[in-house]
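Researcher: Good morning. I'm working through a list of sequences from a screen, and I'd like to move beyond sequence-only analysis. For each chain I'm collecting a predicted structure so we can compare shapes side by side. This is the next one on the list. No need for commentary yet; just the structure.
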Amino acid sequence: SSARDCFFCDFAHRRSGPPPILEVETDEYVIFKDKNPVAKHHYLAIPKEHLHSFNVLNKSHLGLVQRMESGMAAFLRSKNVDPEKAIIGFHIPPFISVKHLHLHGIYPPSDMSWGNAISFTSSFWFKKVLYLFTYICKTF
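Model: Good morning. Structure tokens for this chain:
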């Protein structure tokens, strides 16, 4: 998928509607509520730049990803959620539903069904941001 036909790019740049309510907007990313939430608080942070997935990230993206994670944590705190108790991470291809990088922020994990709990557990298909830093620093 290209940026031209990516509905997450459309959301981030307010190109078509109705987009979700942008809870947070910076020059680099936006945060909005997931349209199919698996818990009371389920938000996505997406970069404004079209990045297909975790697999295209390199050292040049570390700052962006760190800012997305800290922005998600700050946003969750604004909702009276302790980010340390939330699930914050990325699905890894081919286990992605949208071909645009998106960081999940989910709380409380106890709201999730058994299947969703598996889908969002750290594993080979779902990675926390710390894994990304380790992976990129070893790979590049």
